[in-house]
Amino acid sequence: MTTDGIGAGLINTGSGLVDRAIFSDQSIFDREMEAVFDKSWLFVGHESQIRNNGDYFLSQLGRDQVVVTRDNSGKVNVLLNVCTHRGMPVCRYDRGNAKMFTCPYHGWTFANNGDLTGVPLRTEGYGGNLDRAKWGLIKARVVCYYGSIWATFDEAVPEFEDFLGDMAFWLREFLMSPDGEDDGIEVVDGILKCEIPSNWKFGVENAAGDLYHDVSHKSVQRVGLSLSKLRGRHTWDADPATFKLLNITFPAGGHAVRGNLYDFANREYQSQWAAIPEVDEYFREAHYTRQKRLVEKERLLNRGGVVFPNFIYNAANRTSITTLIPRAAGRTEIWKWVFVPKNAPQAVKDAMRHYLLRYTGPAGMVEQDDFENWGSAQLGAESILARRLPMNYQLRLGDYAKWAWPEPWIGAGALVDEGVSEHAQRVFYDRWSEMMTGEPQTVRQEAAE
Amino acid sequence: MSAQVTETVGRPAASYSSGATLKQRVEDFLALEGELLDERKFDAWLDLLDEDVHYWMPLVRNFEFSRPQDEYSEQGVGAAWFDEGKATLRQRVMQIQGGDHWAEEPLSRTTHITTNIRIVEATDTEITVKSRFLLYVNRREEEVRIFVGKRIDVLRPTENNFLLKKRSIFLDQTKMLFKNLSNFF
Question: Which of A38, A342, B72, B129 gets the most CB atoms within 10 Å of its CB?
Answer without folding.
Answer: B129
